[in-house]
Amino acid sequence: MSANLHPTLPDADDPHFERLTLSRLEALLDVEKSAYTHPWSRGNFIDAMASGYQIQVLLRGDELLGYFVAMQGVDEVHLLNITVAPAYQRQGLAHMLLQALVLWSRSQNAQWLWLEVRVSNARAREIYEKFGFRRVGERKRYYPADMGEREDAVVMSIQL
To answer: How is 9-30 classified by DSSP, letter by letter?
Structure first.
């Protein structure tokens, strides 16, 4: 029987998570603006940081691949924003972000994870459904849309 006395250390280019800091906020805002027609503002992220929300960025080296923002409740977590940089979409990173979110949520003793997603965002809804989220309702006129209109949101949850 042999043992590997020198385990392989993670490659510096392996994706890893860090809590959002002000030094990474500009890169995050660039991704946010490139990913959405109605992005969160700098103020939204500053407020989320000041409120103590869980904001994790997924990095490869110094490249920001994605992030999530989550708010903890009594026995639940509410996902407020999850984004994969457009250049890195369709590579399984959304699943990686969701896995990290679930692990953190469980460490906070959450029993449920909730989110809203635009009715028109079929790709995101499919990712959530494959991950195990189920549709539980709808919020009328929840999201801003073009020309001053509003778009409905699908409410989804998963039991942890």
So the answer is: PPPTTS-EEEE--HHHHHHHHH
